[in-house]
Design brief:
heterodimer, A: alpha+beta, Cytochrome-c3 Hydrogenase, chain B, B: alpha/beta, 4 helices, globular, binds iron/sulfur cluster
Chain lengths: 359, 146
């Protein structure tokens, strides 16, 4: 008879990219249960809204997470704009779309690198991050920052992208797409990679639905939901379909994310072709009064921003529901019954972002 | 340029950072910046590490973890606080759950400011840490000789 033992895992552990703690209940090598405890990165950002002007809070919102910083800032701004009935200029909406998709590419490349690192393929890790640096260069060129951009404001964007910059970017993307194809082939076809990813960590469509999974984690289990379809920024004018897979294992999640990178490049091309001339911001006067719930599709899935304003400089409440939080129950489900050696890969396939989960 | 006498191994822990500085630390290890050419290796094991890179401020929950990692590292050791939040709390200073910078929990030797700290700045911090490590090592020898 096998005996049960509990292995503490984290918050600082050689294979963990971020501080989360799990108590793994093991029967020999098999994990029977995983109990998470979180709070290592909790700062209390939501409460800070009582001390900071609602315009300044954009900077705080960006720092909920340094990986999706652009989308956090944008989600907050769009919610505030809805409350204040501000119509953002068309050009700003397209700029938001382009920067959003660039964020998605950089986030997915980052994730692919970490995944490669988790299954011990160092050169693939380096290649993913080398490609990612190209995106960061473009970000630096267009916004001035590598990870924190501060280009969002309530009412539009702080910066414009000149048309020749957008053209330059498109040619960089053409080159990147070729390199990506080579890299994708390794991820999807390499024998050794396949043995690590295929058939590991199944999540069925029903489980994904019941446990409230979001983003690529959910789409890899066959649910075709994408908040971008709900139409914010310039997405209503862009043609795309959510990318799904029906298998629901680690391989499917990798597959979905890789194809989302190609889709993002396509969306940027569409946006670049359609972007109109004009202003990038409108002046905003007065203070917000009311409440709004904004939903944004981040690289990791749907994030929800709830804002409640009372007509003064300070908001009453900001609430953020981040995608990793929604995906944690699903992750714990996939951990059940897996082998201890697969735990790092399984934690990684939901693309956990602990810093935004705990804020 | 400093002469690098030993290959320093570093340990990176994410205190309560927003991930911004965190991924910049990782970016230092990858092809464009590549600190491995200086012999710097990222290790996950505190007992192997010479340099402790820490991002993000200190809160009640992570203070014991940080102290424990610091205690486990062998002497001589150097602590580098990366990013303005690790230096003094930065933008999160007013948050109810932030005690302040890393120096509220453990002694910090080198401060790398920036939000996010750029990879160039982080590498500069690490190079300085190496020099300091040499100095500390010398001092330790002297003390042992006495
Ligand atoms: S210094 Fe800035 S970028 Fe770095 S962890 Fe703190 S908030 Fe994030």
């Amino acid at each position: 008879m096998s005996t049960r033992s509990i292995v503490p895992f984290g918050p600082q552990h050689p294979v963990l990219p971020e501080p989360i703690h799990l108590d793994l209940v093991l029967e020999d090598e098999k994990v029977v249960e995983a109990v998470p405890s979180i709070g290592f990165v909790h700062r209390g950002l939501e409460k800070l809204v009582e001390k900071r002007d609602f315009n300044d809070y954009v900077y705080i919102a960006e720092r909920i997470c340094g990986i999706c910083s652009f989308m956090h800032g944008m989600g907050y701004c769009e919610a505030a704009e809805h409350i204040m009935n501000v119509e953002v200029p068309e050009r700003a909406k397209y700029l938001r779309t382009i920067w959003c998709e660039m964020s998605r590419i950089h986030s997915h490349l980052l994730w692919l690198g970490l995944l490669a690192d988790a299954f011990g393929f160092e050169s693939l890790f380096m290649q993913s991050w080398r490609l990612r640096e190209k995106i960061l260069d473009m970000f630096e060129y267009s916004t001035g920052g590598r990870v924190i951009f501060s280009v969002n404001k309530i009412g539009g964007q702080r910066r414009d992208m000149p048309d020749d910059m957008i053209r330059d970017f498109l040619s960089i993307f053409d080159g990147m797409e070729q390199e990506l194809k080579t890299m994708a082939a390794t991820f999807l076809e390499d024998y050794a990679v396949n043995t690590r990813l295929r058939g590991v960590g199944f999540l069925t469509e029903q489980q994904a639905h019941d446990l409230g999974a979001v983003g690529p984690f959910m789409r890899a289990s066959g649910i075709a939901l994408d908040t971008r379809k709900k139409g914010y920024a310039a997405y209503p004018n862009i043609e795309f379909e959510p990318i799904t897979s029906t298998v629901g294992d680690c391989y499917a999640r990798t597959d979905v994310r890789i194809h989302e990178i190609f889709q993002s490049i396509d969306i940027i091309r569409q946006a670049a072709a359609k972007i109109p001339q004009g202003e990038v911001a409108v002046p905003v006067k007065g203070f917000p009064n009311g409440e709004y719930m904004m939903r944004v599709e981040q690289p990791r899935g749907e994030a929800v921003y709830y804002l409640k304003a009372n007509g003064t400089r300070f908001l009453d409440r900001v609430r953020v529901r981040t995608p990793t939080f929604a995906n944690l129950p699903g992750m714990l489900e996939t951990l059940k019954g897996c082998q201890l050696a697969d735990v790092p890969i399984l934690i990684l396939t939901i693309d956990p972002c602990i810093s935004c989960t705990e804020r | 340029m400093l002469k690098v006498s030993k290959s320093p191994w570093l340990l990176h822990y994410d205190g309560s950072s927003c991930n911004g500085c965190d991924i910049e630390v990782l970016a230092c290890l990858t092809p464009v910046y590549d600190v491995e050419r200086f012999g710097v290796i990222n290790t996950g094991n505190p007992k192997h590490a010479d340099i402790f890179l820490i991002t993000g401020g200190i809160n009640a929950q992570n203070a014991p973890v940080v102290k424990q990692i610091y205690a486990q590292m062998p002497n001589p050791k150097v602590v580098v606080a990366v990013g303005i939040c690790a230096c003094n709390g930065g933008i999160f200073k007013d948050c109810y759950n932030i005690d302040g910078g890393v120096d509220t929990a453990i002694p910090v030797d080198i401060y790398v400011p920036g939000c996010a700290a750029r990879p160039e700045a982080i590498i500069d911090g690490v190079v300085r840490a190496v020099a300091l490590l040499d100095e500390k090592r010398k001092n330790m020898r002297k003390e042992a000789a006495q």
